[in-house]
Design a protein that fits this description.
The structure holds 2 protein chains of 2 kinds. By secondary structure, chain A is mostly beta strands. Helices cover about 10% and strands about 40% of the residues of chain A. Classes of the chains: A mainly beta, B mainly beta.
Chain lengths: ~130, ~140
């Protein structure tokens, strides 16, 4: 492992230690692939981080808010400034062709299945 | 429908939720409108000497279709979030996100000026700022 790799691994570790909210998600699967929707309100586009490493998908986002000076919080349901959620993907998914859209705090991820693994109808031979 | 932003997959988040619930059930005088923890949209409320700031975490709604109303000192945020329609024959593996009509209510302090309230929607967060009336803002009184 090179020095740089070690530094990356360390920063990933410290990040994973920080407490984060678990965003609500929907996951659908059709013949062509998997679609993930995640609610990440308060996260601007540039603070959203998507990472696919080996078979792990990590969704992370930092909430950025302009708070007026001297504001005192009286009620907080979103009490942490970040979201994190990790999924294990399966082998048939083509992680090179992931398409992501992020609009109004909702992330839409499309992970297609590898082309050669698209469903094939198997004829049952009756003898 | 209850919306849980913290899901049992994350043990610490779930413990945090349990702790909140335990605390809430120990509260002898809960709000008449219930606890609402985990409702959609999640709300943060803060105050400054000059204003009351309400943040509603409402991702994926059309801001034009959200109704924000202040009446008799009560702020109401209501609207609808349409469900995403998966392709026919698609399998639903996880279904946690809220869909449907929502309504949340916040009681405001007496000194706010409802006519001067302003609302903005950005990155899925609805921010409503309601100024307090001049007369009740703290004033330093000089001693002669």
């Amino acid at each position: 492992m090179s020095e740089q790799d070690k530094a990356v691994a360390r920063s990933a570790e410290t990040r994973a230690d920080e407490a984060a909210l678990t965003p609500a998600v929907d996951v659908f699967e059709d013949a062509g692939g998997i679609t993930v929707y995640a609610d990440l309100p308060g996260v601007p586009k540039d603070k959203l981080q998507l990472q696919i490493e080996a078979e792990t998908l990590t969704i992370e986002g930092e909430i950025v808010q302009e708070l007026p000076e001297g504001m005192e919080a009286t009620h907080a349901e979103i009490a942490l400034p970040r979201y994190r959620r990790v999924f294990t993907l399966s082998k048939e998914l083509d992680t090179e062709k992931v398409v992501a859209r992020f609009d109004k705090g909702v992330l839409e991820l499309r992970i297609p299945k590898a082309a050669h693994l698209q469903p094939r109808r198997i004829e049952v031979q009756v003898e | 429908m209850r919306y849980r932003s913290l899901f049992p997959r994350d043990l610490f988040a779930e413990l945090d939720r349990l702790q909140r619930q335990a605390q809430q059930s120990l509260d002898a005088t809960p709000s008449i409108r219930g606890w609402n923890y985990g409702a959609y949209p999640a709300m943060n409320v803060g105050t400054t000497p000059k204003s009351v700031e309400v943040y509603a975490f409402a991702p994926g709604v059309d801001p034009a279709a959200v109704e924000v109303q202040i009446e008799k000192g009560v702020l109401t945020i209501a609207g609808e979030r349409k469900p995403v329609a998966p392709e026919e024959k698609a399998a639903v593996h996880i279904d946690e996100r809220f869909a449907g009509r929502f309504r949340r209510v916040v009681t405001l302090p007496d000194d706010v000026d409802a006519n001067a309230a302003a609302a903005r929607y950005r990155d899925g967060v609805l921010h409503i700022s309601i100024p307090r009336r001049e007369a009740v803002q703290p004033r330093r009184i000089a001693i002669e």
